[in-house]
Design goal:
With about 300 residues, this protein is mainly alpha-helical. Helices cover about 80% and strands about 0% of the residues.
């Protein structure tokens, strides 16, 4: 089977699970079965974890472990002792790529993006109980984002490079922009729905922003103390913006998510350009004006006075 056929097959299997899974979650939720909804969500997520593990294993394994183990222990006289030692040694050799820290952290990093997309979508489905059209929109968009993420995830593992190539980075960057939107929107929606304190909301925004930037830095092999410090600073700035969003924004957490996503995209693009040593004043002004324009458009369609009576 060629690489393209493998990628198509893998994407098809992911599409069946995520599209069918989100539809099942919508159906179960609208039957008012939140416990079953949560169980099914975890089952789908464990499949997504298994799929990443399988893709990683297929591309980083060292084949022929059993043959090497048999040859190594062929001098043992008793057949049972020989076979047990061979099987044990073959298994230990087979999972060698999972025992190496540089490989393990590479695998762990690529768990972040699918997990953020999936669980933020699950939250949005729950928050929009009964609003079937809204649920379907997010189910479709998140399914597309997950399929694209897994498509390029297989490509990353196939190339076996520490630093992702530009085509992969561009595709995953588009997915991350959508991920930032659903993350921030779901965080504010959950905070409003369960009357959470502003400390928890701001802390959640800080942690989620840090994860988004960190996994991007990892893909470029740019993780060091200086960049981690800048990542913490950028996460702090976004969380400071989210503080004002929490107190002054209305009920529409969708527009709040777009607003926070726009400023996340601004700061990340400036940071990324600076790391690549190609940041210019012209680019800075252009993206700042674009972010301000998006913010102004969001302000124009947002009712900041909307509040639930007897709400939080």
């Amino acid at each position: 089977m060629t690489l393209k056929q493998q990628k198509i097959t893998s994407a098809f299997l992911i599409a069946i699970v995520v599209v069918g899974g989100f539809q099942a979650l919508i159906y179960i939720l609208n039957l008012n079965e939140p416990v079953i909804f949560l169980y099914v969500a975890f089952a789908i997520y464990f499949y997504l974890l298994f799929k990443i593990s399988l893709l990683y294993d297929l591309h980083f394994k060292n084949p022929g472990a059993l043959a090497r183990a048999k040859k190594r222990h062929e001098g043992l006289s008793h057949w049972l002792h020989r076979d047990l030692r061979a099987v044990g040694a073959a298994f230990w050799d087979r999972i060698r790529h999972f025992r190496k820290w540089e490989h393990l952290r590479h695998w762990q990093n690529y768990l972040v993006l699918p997990g953020l997309i999936f669980w933020s979508t699950v939250c949005l489905l729950y928050l929009n109980l009964g609003r079937v059209y809204v649920e379907q929109v997010f189910a479709f968009m998140s399914s597309a984002a997950l399929i694209v993420a897994y498509w390029y995830l297989k490509e990353v593992f196939h190339r076996r490079k520490e630093v992702v190539d530009n085509d992969v980075f561009v595709a995953l960057s588009a997915v991350k922009i959508y991920t930032a939107f659903v993350l921030y929107a779901s965080a504010l929606g959950v905070a409003r729905r369960f009357c959470l304190d502003w400390h928890l909301f701001v802390l959640a925004i800080f942690g989620l922003t840090f994860l988004l930037i960190y996994q991007a830095l990892f893909q470029h092999q740019l993780i060091n103390l200086k960049n981690l410090g800048l990542t913490l600073a950028l996460s702090l700035v976004i969380s400071l913006i989210s503080y004002f969003v929490f107190f002054y924004w209305g009920l529409n957490y969708f527009t709040a998510g777009i607003f926070l996503m726009a400023w996340y995209n601004f700061f990340w693009n400036i940071f990324h350009r600076k790391l690549d040593n190609n940041l210019t004043w012209r680019y800075f002004v252009e993206i700042l004006l674009l972010t301000c324009l998006i913010s102004a458009m969001i302000f124009s369609v947002t009712n900041f006075k909307a509040r639930l009576s007897n709400g939080c």
